[in-house]
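Protein: Probable lipid II flippase MurJ
Species: Peptoniphilus stercorisuis
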Amino acid sequence: MKTSYILMIVTIVAKLFGLLREKALAYFFGTAILADVFLVAFQIPMTFTNVISGATANGYIPIYDKVKQSSSKKDADLFTSNLTNIIFVVSFIISIIGIVFARPLVKVMAIGFKAEELELCVLITRIAMLSLGATSVFSIFKAYLQIERKFIVSVAHAIVMNIIIIISMWISSKFGYIYLGIGILVAFVFQYIIFLPYIKKSGYRHKFGFDFEDENLKAMLKIIVPVLISTSVIELNFIISKSIASSLFEGGISTLNYAYKLQSFVTGIVITSITTAVYPEMARLGALKDYNGLRKQTSEAIFTMALLVIPASVGLFIFAEPIVKLLFVGGAFSVDDAKVTALALSFYAIGIIGIGIREIISRVFYTIMDAKRPVINSVIMVVLNIVLSISFAKMWGIKGLAFATSVSFIVGAILIVLSLKKKLGSIITKTTTYDIFKIIISTIIMAVLSKFAFNAILNSLGSNLSLIIAIVVAGISYIISLLIFRPSEINKLIGKIKK
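Structure follows.
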């Protein structure tokens, strides 16, 4: 798991720039309707990109590894060229369709938008949709770089994207809102420019042409549709929540977005880093049908995820309001905005562990070429999220939407673990269960001590400084607790740190 920890450090930097983007959005636009317009216009092409890239990457990596194992790297690279050429044409067609039908897309994404904000959002969305061809193609090259173990550059592109978007927000606040759309387009396309030298160094040479009879392409297409459905669940759940939020109150979308971004800060650093690092190895083990090795790899990934996600989730839950105040209050974002956002964040935090388990287990199914079960799991989660979102939003408003999403992820995680147990046997061993129990005890100790420290110094030092000190107390107490209880994997981790 050494690669996972290195990747987390790089991802933290990338995510910090993501938080700076959200801070810039809060500063310039707060929770006003323009913030909602930007978020919807940003989310529509991003959703297409995430769904297409998620499906192609998760389907591409095991097929590439299979071709490389059975034939050669040259043939695997040829398969990559053919795939990217086809994906570019498909995504270009989708972008044209998206531009033509931008209005109904916006209406689905934000059912509460009225005439003026609807027209502005449609315009920005049409500009941003022009990026889809580039983002879809480079999503494959991103997976290619991960196979080549160029993990750092494969996540660092987000820094470039966020810098461009922040600049476009400042320009649009001064010279007109059309620059938001231009900024999204430029950011989406030019963020990948840093990939080019690394792709060249890997020895890859692109070949133009189309081979629809390629057996490897056909094999990938057989799993890509189920993977497409499965990987779109997170995006779809958030789309449902945002659409309902647009009808609750003005600024509902942006409020939910700020909370979601803080939650995704944790999922991006920990969960995405772990899955990015272990998936190529999982694919290799799956291609070799080394199921014992696959089970061991998965167990280690779940432990590493739990080691970091459980305390982070609890920290987000108990310190939601001071975290939001520290990061976002200022400019157009008020203290009252922070209180509402913090409510949503605390309920989003509950579901992070479910996201982590589901993301890891889903990839196990992809490596053994079984995408059916993740699809069934995805459908159950979406239906559950829709039903709960409608019900909870009526009872609890914005926090009900966040809670509904969290419940759907937890239920999905439980069901997919049970499905994998039937397929490959138990992944979460007794040792892993015992280790996670130790992590939970350590987290409880951390939560009690850090909350006590925060409350003790709040009146004298203020919220921001008290939060920083509480985080330090949380980190120290959690590490000491782990050293005392000694989960089995901790000894390995200590050895790697010493090395």
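Remarks: The chain is about 85% helix and 0% strand.
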